[in-house]
Amino acid sequence: MAVNLSAILLFGIAAIFIVKAKAGGIGPAIVLFLLGFFTAGTGADEPIRNLCTALAQALGNLRP
Asked: Computed from CA positions of residues 3, 10, 49, 51, in that sequence, does the dihedral angle turn out positive or negative?
């Protein structure tokens, strides 16, 4: 678990730099894929899925 969390931290920091630099290509795509892969393996996928569902429902309930 400690290796998994450190990998998430490493890929998370790399993802922040990728997004700020607006980088594109195969390298950044692999980093972002690995961030998602390691995050899903920690059990954090359920809270993240619940958050996304709640945000989608909240946006759906907004009135123009």
From this structure: positive
